[in-house]
Here is the input.
Amino acid sequence: MFKIYEYKINLAAEPFENLKYRDRTALVLCKDGKGNYLLDDGKNFYPKGIVRLLGGGIDADESALEGAIREVNEEMGVLVSQDEMAELAEIDVAGVFEGKTYKHKVFVYFLNSKKDDYLAGDDVSDIVAYSEKEYRELIKRYLELRDDNIYNQKGITFSWGDYGKVYGFIHQVALKELKARGL
Here is the structure.
């Protein structure tokens, strides 16, 4: 069962893609057979040291669970069943910029894969394994991204600080819920 969180942020700049163009995202905190967290290192435009949970946008005709399963298959080349996915959190994000509110729901799942070999899929150039300590350090790096660190390419502009506050919180909640449930 999802634990519901609300997260509101006053944005320093234009909203980033997920806030601006998507209404729902499915993310998966995945553990391998050694107990490490598997993360997506496939975004070459991210700031140094920033990787993310596996997952992506949920298609209009999909449930959150179906989207999470599809994303795991696309990004790790692994087919999983619904029974293998544990619901962790639903995070309702509201980003406010220049008086307009942008809303986005993030559904976070847990997958205890117990497998050690993965091939990065279509949207991912690499899957990295982080210990819990490294994962906690990643959260700190997210939260330390500065508002004045602006991404501006291909007609897209946003603040990495805004991105870091939202996704630092999401990564933090994922770990908190995982620990609270003893998974």
